[in-house]
Amino acid sequence: MTKYTRKELIEICELAIVQESAWCNRDSCSAQLNIGQAWAFLKAGVPYKILRKGNLQTNDYIIWLEFKPMDFGSFENGSRLGNEIAYLPTKQRMASANGGDWY
Questions:
Q1: Is residue 103 part of a domain?
Q2: CA triple 10-11-15, angle to 5 deg
Q3: Which pTM was predicted?
Q4: How far apart (Å, rounded) are the C-alpha atoms in residues 80 and 53?
Q5: How many domains does one find in the chain?
Q6: Are the beta carbons of 37 and 54 closer than 8 angstroms?
Q7: What CA–CA distances, in Å, run from 64 to 29, 35, 53, 73?
Q8: 49: part of which helix (H) or strand (E)?
Q9: Which domain holds residue 40?
Q10: Looking at the domain assignment, is residue 11 inside a domain?
Q11: Contact 88/12 with Cβ under 8 angstroms?
């Protein structure tokens, strides 16, 4: 099973951005927004885990992440929001898209 470092996940986010002119799916916009949020959380040092069980399982084509960003409660009582879910394409999935829309 592939292990991903924060640095590798940030690199994947940056590689996964596809020019709007190459989008070819009605959900391409939301997929790109998802990448942007994941990139921001990763760059900001937000705690995360790679999901490997249940319905959202990381595999050869998709990496599922759960983030636990700070929210209002974090400043009031030290709790974290949690359950911000994002997905990234794997390098294999992007390679099969040949520079195009991987979604």
A1: no
A2: 120
A3: 0.88
A4: 22
A5: 1
A6: no
A7: 18, 11, 10, 25
A8: strand 48-50
A9: 6-95
A10: yes
A11: yes
Strand, helix or coil at 100?
Answer: coil
Distance CA 100, CA 51 (A): 26
**pLDDT over 90 percentage in the chain:** 75
Distance CA 92, CA 58 (A): 13
User: DSSP label at 55?
Assistant: T
100 pLDDT tier (thresholds 50, 70, 90) = confident
Instruction: Collect contacts of 21-26 with beta carbons under 8 A, ≥24 apart.
Output: 22/99, 22/100, 22/101, 23/101, 23/103, 24/100, 24/101, 25/101, 25/103
Specify if 102 maps to a domain.
no
Residue 70 pLDDT level (bands cut at 50, 70, 90): confident
CA distances from 66 to 37, 53, 81, 86, 97 (A): 12, 12, 11, 6, 25
Bridge partners (DSSP) listed for residue 90 = none
Does residue 101 lie in a domain region?
no
